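Hi W.,

Here's what went into the run:
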Amino acid sequence: MKKINLKVNGVDYSVEIEEDVRLLDVLRNQLRLTGTKEGCGEGECGACTIIMDGVTVNSCMVMAFQAEGKEIITIEGMATKSGLHPIQRAFLEEGAVQCGFCIPGMVLSAKALLDKNLTPNREEIREAISGNLCRCTGYNKIVDAIDKASKYMGKEGDVNGI
Amino acid sequence: MEYKIVGHNILRVDGLAKVTGKATYPEDLYMEGMLYGKTLRSIKTHAYITVDTKEAEKIDGVIKIFTHKDIPHNYYGVLFKDHEVFCSKKVRRIGDPIAFVVAITEKIAEKAIKAITVEYDEIESVFDPVDAMKEDAPLIHDRSNILYHYKLRRGNIEEAFQQCSVIVENQYKTSMVDHAFLQPEAGLAYMEGDTVVVCAATQYPHFDQLEISEALNIPQEKVKIINPAVGGAFGGREDITLQIHLALATWVIGKPVKTVYSREESFVAHSKRHPMIMNYKTGADANGKLLAMEANIIGDTGAYASWAINIMRKAGVHATGPYEIPNVKVDSYAVYTNNPFAGAMRGFGAAQVPIAHEQQMDMLAEKLKIDPITFRLNNCFKLGSTTATGQVLEESVPLIQCIEAVRHKLNSKANDTEGV
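Here's what came out:
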């Protein structure tokens, strides 16, 4: 057993871990942040995408001890008390959600993109979600949603909730 | 009349839960004191088996190992009961379930799986459905490998082919496809009084209830299925995977049991799209009217039937495509092999045949020196058409408008490009 300290969605945690567990296991099984999904366990599908120190990572490919001292954002950290994040709102409005299993990862990949580039073109949006597989939508509505979110965020200038 | 939904932009009812990560898929369920289940699966395509669980049972933390000896009625299946819950004498494909280990942690269950010895006495396998149809082919089940033959006869193809100016004859093959729904199979079962509750993502909760009650030999009222959020299915969750295993374990042990498949296990656990071998002969007269079509379609259903009958019937019914052909002969077959089993997947048998009938149309048009769109318009279904099965189409048949719209878009796009 080993103890790690990490910040998730603005909250400090100190967690006892077995040394061979992945960050994904800590988030899901120990912190019960089950919005982060496991689709393949080998970094191909992006369902377990989170943001760690500002960069998207597949949490199935990160050992838990590597998260020591890191700042993490999961899907549970997107909405605020005042409402949905504009990205979440746009996904809902554009009908970008079907089975929903890829959506947490998609939303976080979209956030990582829009935090750096508030006016992406459709090619840049596709590039940003190229590590996230969706088996239902065919991606077009997801791209539409991220495009719409970029306009919301540009107009409102408030990325932390509406 | 004012519609409340049609014509309005509405939000999906489960959308909010899904964009916030709150939607609960079966692997998101946890219970106090729950145990973990893991499935031991066949690594051979066709073999008699002898299973020894003694060493595995001695491992600290193993609660129980279930095999065919523990299941009252060891069979299930959507059409035929040709699956065993746990293989008793022989395995018919890679991935056939042999045992289910229940332990206090997932790691211990994995260790126990490795400690079970399975002796495989291999039998000749057959992977090509054409070979499997031969009389001397190894039998997958205790009956012919040909489990279904659909026949469609209309008019007289021999006479009609003699009147044709052009005939094209080709073989087409489609491959096996996995649904690859994003959420691998997972489930949690627990007791609620004397009722066993199974939470699993399924396309068929009422049928799961029936299959579990039959396999466990308990009344249907003692089985409750809860279908939480389903992470995609596309037909791949129509057949049972872990539902009976979880129900049995919880029913016997009395404690909650959870199982989550890896992606790799998901691939071997559920059905596939039927690969088809399609032999087509299609003929038309000099004016570009279709006169005759003959098709022989062989569907590889792998080790189990699943929905093979319905799927190969549908492939046969749709074999002409959306075209009026007065003389038609179709034979479609579902055949057992030792491949992964095939079942429902988007289109349900209707998705494979267009690969064949549309390429036939293109080749006939080329031979006739007719534009392929015009050739289709000359032959396609419209109001009042009779299909090869004798159905008269009396309702909406907007195919001509659809093809015209495509032609218009294609032409305007071509002009745009030329303009640039």
